[in-house]
Amino acid sequence: MTTSVTAPGLTIAGRVYGADTMLPVVDPSVGAPFVEVPAASLAQLDEAVAAANAAFPAWRDTPAGRRQQLVRAIKDLVLAHLDELAVLITLEQGKPLAKARGEIQAGLRQVDYFGGLDVDTVEVLKDDETGRVEVRRAPLGVVGAITVWNYPFLVAMFKMVPALVAGNVVIIKPSPFTPVVTLRLGELVQEVLPPAVVQVVAGGDELGAALTEHPGIHKISFTGSVETGKRVMASAARTVKRVTLELGGNDAGIVLDDADPATVGADLFWAGFSNGGQVCAALKRLYVPASRFDAICEAVAAEAATVVVGPGLQDGVTAGPVQNAPQLERVRRLTEDAVRRGGEAFFRGEVPDGPGYWFPTTLVRGVAEGVPLVDEEPFGPVLPILTYTDVDDAVARANATDYGLGASVWSLDLDRAAAVGARLVAGSVWVNQHPVVTATVPFGGAKQSGIGVEGSRHGLHAYTDLRVLSVKR
Ligand code: NAD
């Protein structure tokens, strides 16, 4: 059964538009489209870019406090439409309704943080009888925000809110798999923002590429795969666009030999399986000392057994389907290949019968590096559990990857865990938790997992350039 919803439109120059081409959006719990949304043409993108450039000077010159007041008004608007937006997230993304509501609340924490931050700071480097040197931060202009399908609302808020507070205008291009909630957000914010300060244009990958090439866009904030991130960076180079790239990860977690399986088992499980494993900084490789291997596997499997996979709108469901068909295929391929290579899928959960992109919650052991399930990013509900005997070796293996998004260490001895963690090459290292991503703490990737950060004052600065004023006295 499909649920019908009203299709939101593109927002260009403060108005809502349809398009000549429609983009069907699939409900992954039934594997069939539930709505069609307009796909912006390149001419419509040009219109949006022109409108954004026209809107930029007035928004830039609006006092920061006023900009923040308007951004805070977005929170009230979203809360007034919380139920509607949460259903849209569940329908297009698949996650359980309570988790969709949680995604929205997490997005609103961007408003709480950046909406209240003191942003008008001037750094004075010198002020004496010979002169004064000051550094300010200036907004960049038009930001192109290209987002992904695992947290469509949250990722859009991660980009839109700090970009606006810093004084930029924003054009958001959501993933073609999950454009609906972002388009609806675009419609809603027109009620509080001046025209063309936020515009949302849905479309396929080619529309994303057009944003990265467009001379009227000054910064790309991109969240997606490493492969696409490289294309974005190459394309942005032609116009020296600034880029923030939040890319993929293959996060390792190292359990130390003093960890108590009963204490860490549930947290280890959810580190890997929150949002059905479709989290950039999910735990994707778990290293466990040989002495604790069986006990940890058992404890993680015990938590896995509590998961109820099903359609996100159904009561009692705690995990949804895989979001899209190519992703399901990838998770299947990597898991089946690992089993063919001698891996043991020692836990496999239940999935509903019938259509929908269902994949059982799966734990695999008996694999090591060299197996693609370990070396690549599955981005789905499967976790390989590996064994080690020497912690130095585990650290070396954890670091032997081009990824460097997150990593974690699990132990009763927090100092020891922190010391091991300091040797892991990742943008974020967590102890006894994984992942933790908030508005107030910088988050970004080392190595090929990205460039730049989101969150915190560092994330705000990503939407600015430094401007120096140097006066000779
Ligand atoms: P993807 O890279 O295929 O797509 C992401 C977005 O880029 C979509 O909007 C898509 O339309 C657009 N796009 C595609 N080709 C483009 C191009 N040439 N130029 C500009 N835009 C283009 O992403 P995916 O593989 O569907 O998503 C999963 C990946 O995203 C995983 O690797 C995951 O780890 C990563 N991710 C990272 C973070 C983070 O914050 N680091 C968060 C979520 C997901």
UniProtKB/TrEMBL annotation:
<dbReference type="InterPro" id="IPR015590">
    <property type="entry name" value="Aldehyde_DH_dom"/>
</dbReference>
<keyword id="KW-0560">Oxidoreductase</keyword>
<dbReference type="InterPro" id="IPR016161">
    <property type="entry name" value="Ald_DH/histidinol_DH"/>
</dbReference>
<dbReference type="Pfam" id="PF00171">
    <property type="entry name" value="Aldedh"/>
</dbReference>
<protein>
    <submittedName>
        <fullName>Aldehyde dehydrogenase family protein</fullName>
    </submittedName>
</protein>
<dbReference type="InterPro" id="IPR044086">
    <property type="entry name" value="LUC3-like"/>
</dbReference>
<dbReference type="InterPro" id="IPR016163">
    <property type="entry name" value="Ald_DH_C"/>
</dbReference>
<feature type="domain" description="Aldehyde dehydrogenase">
    <location>
        <begin position="21"/>
        <end position="467"/>
    </location>
</feature>
<dbReference type="InterPro" id="IPR016160">
    <property type="entry name" value="Ald_DH_CS_CYS"/>
</dbReference>
<feature type="active site">
    <location>
        <position position="246"/>
    </location>
</feature>
<comment type="similarity">
    <text>Belongs to the aldehyde dehydrogenase family.</text>
</comment>
<dbReference type="InterPro" id="IPR016162">
    <property type="entry name" value="Ald_DH_N"/>
</dbReference>
<dbReference type="InterPro" id="IPR029510">
    <property type="entry name" value="Ald_DH_CS_GLU"/>
</dbReference>
